[in-house]
Amino acid sequence: MIELIWAIPLIPFLGFVIVGLLRDKFPNPLISIIGCGVILISFLLSCGVFKEVYAARQLGEDGIFIKEIFNWFTVGNFSVDIKFLVDPLSSIMLLIITGVGFLIHLYSACYMAGDPGFGKYFAYLNLFVFFMLLLVLGSNYLVMFIGWEGVGLCSYLLIGFWYKNSTYAKAAKKAFVMNRIGDLGFLIAMFFILFNFGTLEYGAVFTEAGKLPMGDITLLTITLLLFVAATGKSAQIPLFTWLPDAMAGPTPVSALIHAATMVTAGIYMIARSNIMFTLSPVTMQIIAIIGIATALIAAFIAITQNDIKKVLAYSTVSQLGYMFLGLGVGAFTGAFFHVLTHAFFKALLFLGAGSVIHAMSNDQDMRSMGGLKKFMPITYVTMLLGTIAIAGIPPLSGFFSKDEILAHAFVANPVYWVLGLLGALCTAFYMFRLLYLTFFGEFRGTAEQKHHLHESPWQMTVPLIVLAVLSVVGGLLNIPEALGGGHWLANFLSPVFKQTNAIVEPFHMEHSTEFILMGASAVGAIVMAIFAYNKYVKKNDIPLADADAPSTGLYNLSYQKLYIDQIYNTLFVRPLNALSKFLLRIVELSGIDGIVNGIGDMFVSSGKGIRQLQSGHVGFYIFMMVIGVIAIMLYGLFTV
């Protein structure tokens, strides 16, 4: 099956081409069959690839395969090949992208059924998956960069899918611009890698990087630039504000971006480059600090949001912060474990929110909801499981992955653990707040909305059920030794982190300490769930309307998202707009256009003047000829 690795990204690309070109000729059912079918085929191929990697690992081998597709170009001694790398890390990413991606495609077939851009939507969705597969399969930074840029383009197309709404179009533009800032870091990092190592191939780069001493300035520069790229793609401080605005796109797109594809790219890139980051302790410290700060700020904002999708969006930013905290303290497996479990429960929660929005006739304000569990029992139960999972309550998946990150954070610096625990408590509170406001109490919407409340069709509920099951059992992949597990995921991924494991102290924590940390985290999450129940169900403390909400204090600070967008507008957007207008009016219109048009006008005027000489009167021509002869004679007289 490894021989067919090229087909895994190619098939979704063919889906994009076919659906994109023939979308106006094909009926919607055929478009959805093609759009979903190509992802399903890629998923089945990915299962076959994973099976071979798994078999190799069972035999004690590394399970690493490199497949050359074709030579892209050669300049002198420098050659760039399109090669695909299949190893334990990329094989799991393939399953996440195509598996969760297929469920989101299936869900979309129903969710987007009435949209006039149905074919265009599926074409974009297939293209998104193609670029993400390219990103994780590349065996060098150049192929990764192509996929990196491609998912950025697709996010722009899908976030601004309903582009006639100017707010949505602005959200797409914001995502595009903020990602370009990070992408510049990636581009410069590639130049540094090429200049210092002479190649962009992972294997050769990591071998040479491993020979450099700890704290080497070259590695520090490269890793800082790569981290800048990761902050853009994975929405970390200061480049995180585009992700909540990305809610402008259709809800399944939010699920795809937030769970299975784009935002995980930064974590994947750092995990792939683990040896370079391990040898750059300063960068690791910065990553850990940025990660925990992002987790806390996003959780603080999520507490007061009333748009159901906005709560989930800030939740994603916060969970990504946890993953970066894990990377920063050297818990590469733990961070990737959280990528895996997060893909399950975040996709579930977004699709569940989409199911609610579908029933509420596109109303996303939780203040208008309430009491939906009796109308939408499947959506309620699955979202309940997703909420328990993300809140970190045992034994669901989020508990195990988040606990592994927090345990490593405790060993690295207990302050990280305290802050991480604080963020986890906030997570439990705002997620159960979302659940209670949506599904408990009395319905607060209009009579028209109540009349149309219903459970979603099977195309939407089946993905919810599958993702709910995965959210429940996903944590079994890496149960810690303290609970009788064998760290299966860590063992499976160990060839990817072989160089790092050879130079760092193995992680160790007394089981008694680990039990205390796990107990504190679990009890804290349950207490927050009870606190939220008491506030929003027993006391029916429904959030106030915007006009009645307090305009000062912590609530307002959280509700206004710390005024970060306003600060960015003041510091960057308005000055750049003013500079653009100056360049347009003074430099472009008055300067460049004035000079160019002036020269053109001069020649036009000259032509008009000279044209008068061609009057057609023979007498005038003879007169001019005489004048000419006289002028030549005078010239000869004065120059002899």
Automatic annotation (TrEMBL):
GO terms for molecular function: NADH dehydrogenase (ubiquinone) activity; NADH dehydrogenase activity; quinone binding. Signal peptide: none annotated. GO terms for biological process: ATP synthesis coupled electron transport; electron transport coupled proton transport. Pfam families: Proton_antipo_M (PF00361), Proton_antipo_N (PF00662). Keywords: Membrane, Transmembrane, Transmembrane helix. Its main location: membrane. It is found in: Endomembrane system; Membrane. The keyword Hydrolase does not apply. InterPro entries: NADHpl_OxRdtase_5_subgr, ND/Mrp_TM, NU5C-like, Proton_antipo_N. One of its GO terms (cellular component) is endomembrane system. Residues 72-122 form the NADH-Ubiquinone oxidoreductase (complex I) chain 5 N-terminal domain. Residues 140-419 form the NADH:quinone oxidoreductase/Mrp antiporter transmembrane domain. It is a multi-pass membrane protein. The chain crosses the membrane at residues 6-23, 30-51, 89-109, 121-139, 145-163, 184-205, 217-241, 253-271, 283-304, 311-329, 335-357, 378-396, 416-439, 460-479, 515-533, 618-638. NCBIfam families: NDH_I_L, PRK06590.1. This is NADH-quinone oxidoreductase subunit L. The gene is nuoL.
